[in-house]
Amino acid sequence: MLIPLWQSTIIPSFEPSINPRSEFEGITLLTNPSNDPHPLVAIKSGTTNEQFRRWCLQHKRVCLPFNVIMVEITFGGSNAPICHGAGLSTSTLSDLVAEVQYIDANGVLQSISDPRELRAAAGCFGLLGPVTQLTLRLDRMKMAVMNPVKVRTALAIPPPDGYPIPKEVDMTGITPQMMQRAKAQFVKTCETSYYLEWFWFPYQKDVWVNTWDSTSRFVLFCFLLMAHSAVIVSRTGPC
């Protein structure tokens, strides 16, 4: 984090805006999302996730297909250790990198955009040198629908057959048939959800399962819902 100490320790939390005079903060759209399904955006390494989130909502043109959940972390800080999304269809932030700008050992500004070299440079763990800017391939702005459910711990992530279940996990009333259904649902959730998370807090009996779907399914759902509503209105008349 490059947020000054006095800003990071006050309550309520302080979210600074992009400083236009800073060499380490800034966002520039490089290609037109209307023509490019994965537009290029240059993000200076000191730009925080919260600053980028605000920029996306302001312009409503591009977004990250996945990201870490911390809003205070900088892009230089989340990309260097190859931070990732959550789901079979997501990868890592470093896989989105099209170019890295950095300062070499001689103090000279350098850039890497060769795909082969980026396999090492995109997620460099800080070993490349001070990274000043990242160019990422993003997505056009999308709508996401979230479907959170609360599930008993044993059924949220069912253990493999024969796995010794700790006595602290409440198995009261759970039948083998329930476990089989839970396993099938777990596999389906992993294979079909765009982004997914399981949250469990110590000593709690339930797990929060949070899943997101991408725009296409949401738009289809809205279309079907509108079509269904139109049929109802046509048969019953306006209310």
Q: If you had to describe this structure to a student in words, what would you say it looks like?
A:
The protein has 239 residues and is an alpha+beta fold. The chain folds into two domains: 136 residues, Uridine Diphospho-n-acetylenolpyruvylglucosamine Reductase, domain 3, CATH 3.30.465; 72 residues, no CATH class. It is built from seven helices and eleven strands. The strands form three sheets. Strands 1-2-6-4-5 form a five-stranded antiparallel beta sheet. Strand 10 and strand 11 form a beta hairpin. The radius of gyration is 23 Å and the shape is elongated. The N and C termini lie far apart (55 Å). The C terminus is likely disordered.
